[in-house]
Amino acid sequence: MRQLQTGPKRAVNLTLSAATLDLAKEMGLNISQTVDCLLAEEVLRLDLQRWNEDNREAIEAYNARIANDGSFSQRIRKHLAESSDLEGAAR
Fold first, then answer.
1. pTM of the predicted model as reported, rounded to 2 decimal places
2. Domain spans in the chain, listed from the N-terminal domain onward
């Protein structure tokens, strides 16, 4: 997954709703910072969504294997429990 680092800024032209822009200025919002933060959040959200879609089959296969076989720690606990049961029966 990507991480966005702060780096050099670049000037861009945006078209925003005049009413929204006026209210934001009245509230003292830093428009550039606000848009930058919101855009970064959306980019990361879409990147995660794309990653999940690209890896859906592998995730489903992993989840099916865990549902069928259990996790590594569950298998170890089962093995240890079975080993202690065998030792108890041998005494």
1. 0.66
2. 31-90
